[in-house]
Amino acid sequence: MTRSERSPLLLAGLLATAGVAHFASPRPFDATVPSALPGTPRTWTYASGAAELALAAGIALPRTRKAAALAAAAFFVGVFPANVKMAVDWRHRPAPLKAAAIGRLPLQLPLVLWARSVARGGEAQA
Fold it and tell me: Where is the signal peptide (predicted)?
């Protein structure tokens, strides 16, 4: 299997793993939900987990891959505020945790580029 054939499956696997994590251990995700959003953080945690699982399934299937990959790119942009909130909230935590929270911020760009690359059918950018 070539790199370009593995790339969509790897992205689908990443999204599926994250989606399952939202259901298996929702509390850490609840804490990243911006308070400006209506409803409860748990509702947003479960909704984003379900979205990640749906995106993973869509990317795994060649017939829906392009649309799902473009939706994944938009999803990665959409969850960026949660990563910003996490970095702000964790600014007084021990250095390794603070570094992890801050380190997540620039990772969104490669994820967006990777999803766009999968949508185009090209090799992964990440």
Answer: 1-23
pLDDT tens digits for range 37-80: 899 999 999 999 999 999 999 999 999 999 999 999 999 999 99
Instruction: Decide if 83 contacts 105 (C-beta within 8 A).
Output: yes
Q: How high is the pLDDT of residue 5?
A: 84
Q: How far apart are CA 18 and CA 23, in angstroms?
A: 9
Indicate the SS3 state at residue 32.
coil
Helices and strands, counts by H and E, the chain: 6, 0
Extents of the domains making up the chain: 3-120
Gap between the Cα atoms of 106 and 109, Å rounded: 6
Q: Please give the full DSSP string across 106-125, using - where no structure is assigned.
A: HHHHHHHHHHHHHHHT----
Q: Taking the CA of residue 30 as centre, how many other CA atoms within 13 Å lie in the half-sphere pointing to its CB?
A: 10
Q: Whole-prediction pTM value?
A: 0.86
Please answer whether residues 120 and 59 qualify as being in contact, where contact means their C-beta atoms are separated by less than 8 angstroms.
Answer: no
